[in-house]
Every structure is written in C-alpha cells, then in structure tokens.
Amino acid sequence: MSIHYDLYETPDIQQTGEQQPLHPRVVFKGTINQDEFLDRVHKFTGISRSLLAGAMQSFQNELRDLLANGWIVELGDIGYFSASLQGPPVMKKEEVHAQSIKLKNINFRPSTQFKKEVGWQMRPERGESFTRPHGKGRSEEECLTIINEHLKRYPCLTRADYCRLTGHDKQRALNELNAFIEQGILIRYGAGKQVVYAKQREE
C-alpha cells in the first residue's frame, strides 16, 4: 500500500523573494465512489452488500439529522462531524435574524487514533503531479483555461469532456480534476457514472 507525493515550493507569504523550502503534496490516484467503496467492504468482510448499502444510508440520514439539530457526532474511531454557520456582518445582536443564518460547512475532525492508523498504513513513494512542468501534456494553466472556457458555455464538465478537451487519458484526467477540487477551484456533484464538475462557489 503506497501513497504518491510530489514536492512543491512553499508560498513566499512574506514576499522576501528568497527561495522557499519544499513541502510534499499528495498525487491523488482518483476517486473511490460509494459503489466501489461498498464493493471493497463487502469483499473483505463478507457482509451482504445490500445490508452495507442500507446501513450506509441509515448512517447518512441519522448524521444529517443530528448535525441539523446542533449535535457533534462521533463516528467510532474515525472522528467527529460538526456544522458551522455563517451570517451577515453586524455589530449588534439585534440586527441578526434567524432567517439570515445559514449553513457554512460540514466539518470533520479525525480522531488521533484514526490518524495514527492511516499513518501506520501509509508508504510514501515519489510520484509526478500534472501541476509541475515535467512530462507530456497540457500545463495546469492551459487546463484551467480550458475548464473556464467550457464552463462559460455549459453549467458543468464531465470527466469525458475533460479528456476530450485536454487529450489526457482517463486516469490523468481524474488526478487533475481531483487536484482542482483539492485547490478549491472545482466541486464535484453526483456519484459513479453520474459525476459532474462545476466551479466552486465563492462565499
């Protein structure tokens, strides 16, 4: 079991103009959707796949309801889920109305034990990210331009669209799209063959 990484220069926040130290970043292999995740759990546990699917849906529904009612939910040794809120900038409490308070995000904080277990299983190996100038194919800047031009004309982008527009193969396309999600540029909707990508909304 291995995880691929590439090295990037740390941003020069202080604008010193000096060379900055390198830091590792994951080169993602792709996305495991719910169907494949259930298949893997079924394969290694022998638990009925239909039972697993029903349990996952039940977990999702209960987690949704508890978060919506203000609870922090601990999911075994995996970690904790909680909701955060946003509202208009005001100076006095009297200026805030309940209707103006909305969900900002669903937060996840992994447990210390879960982080340790992931670290124990991890075997880092040097890989290559498409965001660096080595290798054949289009650069990150070219890919972003292609994405922006496409999303000006259409509401979303599929993996097949991206392959056709960039000339990159399926695996590279998935890696690149996932990298753009990690950077906060794109957001993914749907699952399995119904996955589409759109521009991340600015809050």
Summarize this structure as a short list of keywords or feature phrases.
38% helix; three-stranded mixed beta sheet; single chain; 2 domains; 203 residues; 6 helices; HU Protein, Chain A; alpha+beta; Arc Repressor Mutant, subunit A; three-stranded antiparallel beta sheet
Descriptive notes:
The structure is a single chain. The protein has 203 residues and is α+β, with helices and mostly antiparallel strands. It has 2 domains: 3-30 and 128-199, Arc Repressor Mutant, subunit A, CATH 1.10.10; 46-124, IHF-like DNA-binding proteins (HU Protein, Chain A, Irregular), CATH 4.10.520.10. It has 6 helices and 8 strands; from the N terminus they run ββααβββαβαααββ. A 3-stranded mixed sheet has the order 2-1-6, with no helix packed on it. A 3-stranded antiparallel sheet has the order 3-4-5. α5 packs across α6. The chain starts with a strand and ends with a strand. The model has no long low-confidence stretch (mean pLDDT 86).
